[in-house]
Write a structure and sequence with these properties.
The protein is built from 18 helices and 15 strands. By secondary structure, the protein is α/β, with parallel strands linked by helices. A six-stranded antiparallel β-sheet has the order 2-1-4-5-6-7, covered by helices on one side. Strands 8-12-13-3-14-15 form a six-stranded mixed β-sheet. A three-stranded antiparallel β-sheet has the order 9-10-11, with helices on one face. Helix 7 runs antiparallel to helix 13 and helix 9 runs antiparallel to helix 11. The longest helix has 64 residues.
């Protein structure tokens, strides 16, 4: 369960710490005081996205953390161990930091955690039912999920989803292989021809580089010989102004000068070494000239080979240097096509087997859903009557789908049907005209379906909007009943609901020097009586409203 929350610099909250107990806790206060902001802060710890707008004006970052007791949640502790996020205690600390630039960091037990990890963990710890939950009820998949939660069918649902995914993966693979025989034959013919052509050509990346270099050398033999002859002349063969003679003269002169200034001697030695290197370079150039000659026949062969390479590359629409890799790819595709026939036969059997496994799992889930639906129909219809819709009826509708429409939810479409008035036929929720009726229907569904949930902390954020009087008292009783099985945190404007709580906090907005902040104050006896009286009578609290509040609290005990 949620044991505490700590909030710094979030929205209009400056600093806030609240401790929670088991049972039913309510947060009350004036409109705009920040009651739902606390729930919004908690939502960030559960993996919802955030941006810079949540950071309190003038602050560098918002910092939110919450502590949960896991002593009765071994499956959550096991998950933390698997993720290496446990701290060997019976508690878990979630933390989220959002900078004013919009950067966000999450932590689980002090260790960095991704948003996905926080969401996965959060779904096991808290379930939030907002004032717009009736809108979520209209979304595809929500109704089947609620039915499964009520019937504790999550394991059957997950098993069926796994079977569905396995079937679809195999079917996708089979579809890729399901080319027509003519297409397969044509592709095989083309690949076989292309691979043989490249095999016969025998091209490799090393040969391409060698041919390029050799062709470039032979095509420029005349220029190479002429230019190297000129360099020989400059280096050695010019008797008066060759580089060799000039360097020798300078070396000799510096050797003489070194006798007068020793610092010049090393320079002379460097030039002597340079003279030796010039001699060696000259010898290498002479060797190059003696062994370099034109070879028109070889040049012609290389030219033809290069022309063939470029033609082959043009045919395959690739660069010449990409031909070796293309050869490998085409060869692999040919081998895959050769083996695909055998794979196709075995895959057909695998797909058929996977389909049967899915249908078996879907049938089992469907049977369990029908049993759960009978109980759900009765429970929600009863709640509708308690919530002021005496003639209201609820039913879960099952519509068989064609095989083309099978999906991860099963082989049937699940819809919640209701009627608010006698003599009216059951209709889908989306056809309910009155927003007030839809809110009460949504509340009845939420209250019933959470009883099958294994989540330890249930939050109801202003789900009682639009109701009052005896109906509000019924809502309070329903929420208090749920609190016998799970921790309930409720944001409410209804005195009848607040009076049923085991723990009561008042959320107060204060302004000091143009700075607005939110405070949370625990209420006991007299203070709680005053807050209930305010909720009953508004701004002006009279002795009559105080007495009414006392009676309401006394009746709730």
């Amino acid at each position: 369960m949620l044991t505490s929350i700590h909030i710094d610099n979030f929205a209009i909250i400056d600093h806030l710490e609240v401790d929670f107990q088991s049972g039913m806790t309510v947060l009350t206060g004036e409109t705009g005081a920040g009651k739902s902001i606390i729930i919004d802060a908690l939502s960030l710890l559960l993996g919802t996205r955030a941006d810079a707008s949540v950071v309190r004006n003038g602050s560098k970052r918002a910092d939110i953390s919450a502590l949960f007791d896991l002593s009765s949640l071994p499956e959550v502790s096991d998950w933390l161990k698997q993720q290496e996020l446990d701290d060997e205690s019976s508690s878990c600390l979630l933390r989220r930091v959002i900078s004013k630039e919009g950067r966000s960091k999450g932590y689980i037990n002090g260790q960095p955690a991704t948003l996905s990890m926080m969401k996965t963990l959060g779904e096991q710890l808290v379930d939030i039912h907002g004032q717009h939950a009736h809108q979520a009820l209209l979304r595809p998949g929500t109704q089947s999920r609620l039915l499964d939660n009520f019937g504790a069918l999550q394991n059957k649902r997950n098993q069926m989803k796994s079977k569905w995914q396995h079937w679809q993966n195999l079917a996708d693979e089979l579809n890729k292989l399901q080319l027509s025989e003519q297409e397969r034959h044509d592709r095989h013919e083309l690949l076989d021809y292309q691979v043989q052509e490249l095999d016969n050509f025998g091209i490799s990346a090393k040969e391409i580089n060698t041919i390029d270099a050799e062709f470039n050398r032979l095509a420029n033999t005349n220029q190479l010989l002429e230019e190297t002859e000129q360099q020989l002349h400059l280096l050695y063969q010019n008797e008066q102004n060759s580089a060799y003679e000039l360097v020798n003269q300078a070396a000799f002169k510096l050797e003489e000068l070194g006798k007068m200034d020793a610092t010049l001697s090393p320079i002379g030695e460097m030039l002597q070494n340079a003279s030796i290197q010039i001699q060696e370079a000259t010898q290498e150039l002479r060797y190059y000239q003696e062994h370099t000659e034109q070879d028109p026949e070889k040049l012609k062969q290389l030219d033809q080979r290069l022309a063939q390479l470029h033609e082959l590359a043009r045919k395959h629409r690739v660069d010449v240097k990409a031909l070796p890799q293309l050869h490998i790819q085409l060869h692999e595709e040919l081998e895959e096509l050769n083996s695909s026939t055998k794979r196709f036969d075995s895959l057909e059997q695998d797909v058929a087997r996977a389909r049967q496994q899915f249908l078996k799992a879907a049938k089992g889930l469907s049977q369990a859903r029908h049993k759960a639906a009978t109980k759900l129909n009765k429970a929600i219809s009863s709640n509708l009557a308690e919530l002021g819709m005496e003639e209201g009826k609820f039913a879960v509708d099952f519509e068989a789908l064609s095989e083309q429409k099978y999906n991860s939810e099963g082989t049937e479409k699940i819809s919640f049907l209701v009627t608010a008035n006698p003599g009216q036929p059951l209709q889908p929720l989306s056809k309910v005209a009155s927003g007030g009726e839809l809110s009460r229907i949504s509340l009845a569904i939420q209250v019933v379906t959470v009883t099958g949930s294994s989540i330890p902390c249930l939050i109801f954020d202003e789900v009682d909007v639009g109701i009052g009087g005896g109906t509000a008292e019924v809502v309070g009783n329903l929420l208090n009943t749920i609190a016998d099985k799970a921790q309930v945190l409720c944001v409410t404007h209804q005195a009848q609901v607040a009076s049923k709580a085991d723990q009561h906090y008042q959320v107060i907005k204060s302004s000091i020097d143009e700075n607005t902040s939110t405070l949370v104050k625990p209420l006991l006896s007299t203070e709680r009586n005053e807050e209930i009286a305010r909720m009953i009578g508004g701004i002006e609290i009279t002795q009559q409203t105080r007495k009414h509040a006392e009676e309401m609290l006394a009746h709730a005990k």
